[in-house]
Amino acid sequence: MRPVELTPDLAFLRLAMVNVYFYGRSGAGDRGWVLIDAGLPGSAGVIADAAARRFGSRARPAAVVLTHGHVDHVGALQTLARRWDVPVFAHQLELPYLTGRSSYPPPEPLVGGGLMALLSPLFPRGPIDLGGRVQALPEDGSVPGMEGWRWVFTPGHSPGHVSLFRAADRTLVAGDAFVTTRQESLLAVATQYREIHGPPAYFTMDWVAARQSVERLAELEPEIAATGHGRPLRGPAMRAGLEELARRFGSLAVPRRGRYVRAPALAGPDGVTSVPPAIVPPRLVLGLAVAALAGVVLSRRRA
Predict the structure, then answer these.
(1) Topology of the domain covering 7-274
(2) pTM higher than 0.90 for the full model?
């Protein structure tokens, strides 16, 4: 698979339900490019092949930069980091989930009204352990290997979520601070139906912070919005949609009910410190997830 170019030095690759991004011009060569996020478990070979097609058969990245550490953004990371012998950068508050110290809070599957949300209790919550390969992003806001870019603190979906922004052409890599498809719905994920949407609700742990993050990104007035889920969008219509999401975040993005709607999960430098009580008993939630998965398997067999 060949990455799709958004600008001369930014391309993306869709891996089932999530995007990874490649920063660097075609043919940049060894250590001349940066990988942004690392996809689903089992996707290391596809990512490495795409990188080889764009940058050269022996071209390793100068760095891997993470928007956050959820499983669909770090699934291939341990394999790729070893293969390429490459440093990994993430926000300081994401490090506990990347160094084996803490799992993320439990998901909330009864939000968003979709099958992806129902399946979320089956998704791994980490942590992974990258050891000394991972380090905190520079405090000055710069992004290693990406001159002219800065990282923007956009928590809410995760404690240390960041987005990446280049002011020169107003290109934004938003991660999951907002997305461009309704990620809770398996049908929307499959069809990639385009809409400016709040962060994936089932793993968003702090809705007040998530709203502030969307407002912060809308103020940047991006020309290109490259998100973790859904097709990258650009231009006035995208900006109008993002502005509306920021203005009406409570009604457009925040679920009517849910454990993190009532109160956020709390996290610090060592990971999660407090999680509000579940609204639905965990055993019932797990049962619903298993039933949803069984339904998916049966429908595929009949097809």
Answers:
(1) Metallo-beta-lactamase; Chain A (3.60.15)
(2) yes
